[in-house]
From TrEMBL:
This is DNA-binding transcriptional regulator OxyR. Keywords: Activator, DNA-binding, Transcription, Transcription regulation. One of its GO terms (molecular function) is DNA-binding transcription factor activity. One of its GO terms (cellular component) is protein-DNA complex. SUPFAM superfamilies: Periplasmic binding protein-like II (SSF53850), Winged helix' DNA-binding domain (SSF46785). The keyword Phosphoprotein does not apply.
Length: 299
């Protein structure tokens, strides 16, 4: 038994498909299948029921995959310890971003980070909040950049910036003539929202409910760009994070206006496992990102 065998087993348990698991591990399907058969022979138990239609894990396979995942997590932590003592700002770093942050933050920071920290090799991922937190816990990600949420356990965080949300409305809308809009002015309006699973949805809805604004339940967007296009088509209005607002506040059929009294906003932070030995690295990354993004937010 070796580490690579455990990686094959975990990949197959998560993908439930031999070809997809093999592609993920960068090996041929026969290689992956053959190594798992050897693992079964070594253990003396059947881990996987192989059928023509799907992959089923036995009880032994489920237990083995759970333990393998923990072993791989510890192996990654051992590697991190080695990198930390050799050079805290070197080696691979795997960072996750939520979809309402990644597309707008990364273009502003990634080239600078690569230049400023040349010995770090950045691997970037974009997924929804719960998936990112799960991968952070399992050690598949070193840190995650996302909005602050209540009751997140087992992680530490470094605040990066506060991001206001602006109102996006069709350019022909009467309120598009205003310089800024009090939240109370929108009472009774309906707002387009992202679908469940996006933390921005929960944050935006909190402000909307407090201001007497209802959700337009006829449509739920899968991305900010989908919502932007719906607004441009005259199908409603929505709240947009400031980094997603174009420099020209009237563009492509959409007008963007700041909301005040109160200002709806969210805190974007870098999250990491409490026990991670890479905390000094995270501190430097957070400080650099905060410095880079302040000008983009007009601070």
């Amino acid at each position: 038994m070796n580490i690579r065998d455990l990686e094959y087993l975990v990949a197959l348990e998560e993908e439930k498909h031999f070809r997809k698991a093999a592609e993920r591990c960068f090996v041929s399907q026969p290689t992956l299948s053959g190594q798992l058969r050897k693992l079964e022979d070594e253990l003396g138990v059947i881990l996987i029921e192989r059928t023509s239609r799907k992959v089923l894990f036995t009880s032994a396979g489920d237990a083995m995959a759970r333990q393998a995942r923990q072993v791989l997590k510890e192996v990654r932590e051992l590697k991190n310890i080695g990198h930390y003592f050799a050079d805290p700002m070197s080696g691979e770093i795997h960072i996750g971003f939520i979809p309402t942050v990644g597309p707008y933050l990364l273009p502003l920071i990634i080239q600078d980070l690569r230049s400023h920290f040349p010995r770090l090799e950045f691997y970037l991922y974009e997924e929804q909040t719960q998936s990112l937190l799960k991968k952070l816990e399992e050690g598949l990600l070193d840190c995650v950049v996302m909005a602050e949420l209540a009751n997140i356990e087992g992680v530490g965080s470094l605040a990066l910036y506060e991001e206001p949300m602006w109102l996006a409305l069709p350019q022909h809308h009467p309120d598009a003539l205003a310089t800024q809009l009090p939240l109370s002015h929108l009472k009774g309006q309906k707002m387009l929202m992202l679908a469940d699973g996006h933390c921005l949805r929960d944050q935006a809805m909190g402000f909307c409910f407090a201001g007497g604004i209802e959700e337009d339940t006829r449509f739920k967007g899968t991305s900010l760009e989908t919502l932007r296009n719906m607004v441009a088509a005259g199908s409603g209005m929505t709240l947009m994070p400031k980094l997603a607002v174009p420099v020209a506040h009237d563009a492509a059929g959409v007008s963007y206006r700041p909301v005040i009294d109160p200002i709806p906003q969210r805190i974007i932070s870098l999250f990491y496992r409490h026990y991670s030995v890479r905390r000094p690295c995270f501190n430097e990354l957070a400080e650099r990102i905060t410095r880079l993004i302040s000008s983009a937010l007009g601070e």
